[in-house]
Amino acid sequence: MTTVVVPVRYPLTRHSRATLRAAIDLAEERDAGLTILHVDLYQNDNRVTWSDLKHAVERSFGQLDNARYVVRRSFLVEETILDEVAAEDADVVVIGSAQASRWRRALRSLLGEPDIEAYLREQLDCELVTAAV
């Protein structure tokens, strides 16, 4: 089965809901499983649970039969996303254009002027979809 992973913020922002909508549509189109991922940063001490995430998503989109909800605690969002994508052996990762911009800024500070999409494709080894938000 195809697996789509979509990282989102919690509580869901307008951008997260738009990205999630694109991921839901893509998962339905491809008859894929959907992993909805939130990285709960240790330094924020929010203690978000998968149940919190699930209820927030279901309030916005209704029950999603093909969805799996994952909350990972970490210091680094990008590394945790890459780890989850690898662990899931994901076929597709959906990120919002706002997320792509954040990654681009982070990489630019490290590498100069990177090609963010090429970098992510190299690191992820799967299809990358950037949703317009």
Key attributes of the depicted protein:
five-stranded parallel beta sheet; 133 residues; 5 helices
Q: Which assembly state applies to the chains in this document?
A: single chain
Shape estimate: globular
The residue-averaged pLDDT reads 86
Count helical runs: 5
Helical content stands at 40-55%
Radius of gyration: 14 Å
Counting helices, strands and paired strands, the structural category is alpha/beta
Please give the number of β-strands: 5
Strand content: 15-25%
Our measurement of the CA-to-CA distance between the termini, rounded to an integer number of angstroms, reads 27 Å
Give the topology string: H per helix, E per strand: EHEHEHEHHE
Largest sheet properties: 5 strands, parallel
In the sheet with the most strands, the strands line up as: 3-2-1-4-5
Which helices and strands occur, and which strands form pairs?
Layout lengths: L2 E5 L6 H16 L3 E9 L8 H12 L5 E8 L2 H12 L3 E5 H15 L4 H9 L2 E5 L2
Parallel strand pairs: 1-2, 1-4, 2-3, 4-5
